[in-house]
Amino acid sequence: MSRTDRANRVIRASRTAVYGALLDQGAVEAWLPPDEMTGRIERWDPRVGGGFRMTLTYADPTGSPGKTSDGTDVVDLEFADLVPGERVVHRAVFESDDPAYAGTMTMTWSLADRDDGTEVNVTAADVPAGIDQAVHEEAIASSLAKLAGWVEGRAG
């Protein structure tokens, strides 16, 4: 049975600024890795049908085994849909020999105007069974907090 995880946050910046950070390689490399991880983008093609490959490295892999190796998660992401100022959709496939991480997860980043900025809603559909739901939702919230820091720090 497929699972959907969610998180949201209001970012004190315009939809244009937030959307820009969703498609800027340096920004994505900085804000997408959740706390306790770093990321490195190996290729970047920000167009529908394009995508990127990211290696996420755990600061301390103890107790947090990676999907690809003990200390890493490698994920290939395709840009499935791009609607300027409104939505970015990724199809994500983890590199793993473990069938619990198999399949394609679809992550939708939706943007909506709010009086105090932009509400960002993230929906992760068809989450692989091996990914703990609470941990995943916490990781998405962490990425959203880092996205807010990135965008708000440049908007002011």
UniProtKB/TrEMBL annotation:
Ranges for domain Activator of Hsp90 ATPase homologue 1/2-like C-terminal come to 13-150
Highest taxon listed in the record's lineage: Bacteria
Q: Which InterPro entries match?
A: ASHA1/2-like_C, START-like_dom_sf
Q: Which family does it belong to?
A: Belongs to the AHA1 family.
What name appears for this protein in its UniProt entry? ATPase
Query: Whose protein is this, by species?
Result: Actinophytocola xinjiangensis
Lineage, broadest ranks: Bacteria, Bacillati, Actinomycetota, Actinomycetes, Pseudonocardiales
